Amino acid sequence: xxxxxxxxxxxxxxxxxxxxxxxxxxxxxxxxxxxxxxxxxxxxxxxxxxxxxxxxxxxxxxxxxxxxxxxxxxxxxxxxxxxxxxxxxxxxxxxxxxxxxxxxxxxxxxxxxxxxxxxxxxxxxxxxxxxxxxxxxxxxxxxxxxxxxxxxxxxxxxxxxxxxxxxxxxxxxxxxxxxxxxxxxxxxxxxxxxxxxxxxxxxxxxxxxxxxxxxxxxxxxxxxxx
Length: 226
Known about the structure:
The chain is α+β, with helices and mostly antiparallel strands and about 230 residues long.
């Protein structure tokens, strides 16, 4: 119905009423001329309608392709972020003498910190991506005259214990302990080593100046982002 109204309007504007032939032309000739003009207009309208439909189809394809491009760019960005390497290795530069329960062990000397997720000022590693992580802790203690001394440590994830180490009762020799763990972490999860409980006279060995030994250290890396 709308198409007929459009045609009628076009005819009204563009097709004048042809006057009777002053030389005596018949009314039928006048009608034939109007019919020819109307037919031409109808053909033009039909052609325009087809062109409009073609443009609509092409526009729909362009919109779909644009959406696909955005989705592809988002996927590429996500894959790049998941492939971001995260790894750190830090050592204890000085001895910790008689650390107290609840104290954080701050491994303050960085050897590796790819991704800058480990803070050497606080001793806290903050997961920059969700995924699977591996952590390793190595601790050492020198000879100790107090045979009853002990030090126990916990590797914590947001305050939850995920690994346990202890250095107990060494008198005439160095003692060395280590622990590794693999955990799932969310972005923003925090990890640190804390003194669980300790007694007697005890020392957690740091890096001795003038020596090449790294006595106590922590490391970790991202295995796979999710």
